[in-house]
Each structure stands twice: as structure tokens, then as C-alpha cells.
Amino acid sequence: MINWLVSLYQNNPILATTITYLFVSSAVGALPSPTSNTGFYRFFFDFIHTFTGGIARVVASRNALTNGSTTPVENTQWKPKGAK
């Protein structure tokens, strides 16, 4: 199993990274909201959501820049090149 995952990342890094991103995003989104009296879990919950939100912003900015935008997060919706 491990050898298969390693070969997947080596042969198809974009596909493997996309699948990993979607898996981690779903796992973080499935975390239950903390109650008011939870100490470490509240920190963990906020930290993980902040970290993954930053990654999502980087991905959205990169996609916007490669689709012809002049600012990093001008529009996060994908448009074909030349579309208004």
C-alpha cells in the first residue's frame, strides 16, 4: 500500500496532491464544533481551521493568477481565458 502511494505521488504529483487536499479538507470540515468549556480542543480546532483556510486561500490565489487575474484573489471563480 505504501509503495503504491509513493509511486502515485512520483508519477502523478498534481493528482495525488489534489486528492490529498480534498481528503484533508473534508476531514477538517467534519470536526465537531468545540463547546465553551473545552481547552485544548478549542485551540486545536481554531489552529486547524486557520491553517487549512490559509492553504485554501493560496490555492484560490494561484488559480486566479493563472487564469489571467491581476490581483491574487480578485475572483475565485474559474473563467475561461478571454471570458468577461
Indicate the mean pLDDT: 76
What share of the residues does DSSP label as strand, in percent? under 5%
Oligomer: single chain
State the secondary-structure class.
Answer: mainly alpha
Order of helices and strands: HHH
Rg over CA atoms, rounded to whole Å, is: 17 Å
Q: What is the count of DSSP helices, taking H or I runs of 4+ residues?
A: 3
Topology:
Layout: H1 2-11, H2 13-29, H3 40-66
What keyword list fits this structure?
84 residues, mainly alpha
Gist of the model:
With 84 residues, this protein is mainly alpha-helical.
Question: How does this structure look, described?
Answer:
The chain contains three helices and no strands. The longest helix is centred in the middle third of the chain and has 27 residues, at about 40-65. The protein has one domain. It has about 80 residues and is mostly helical. The protein has helices at about 1-10, 15-30, 40-65. Helix content is about 65%, strand content about 0%.
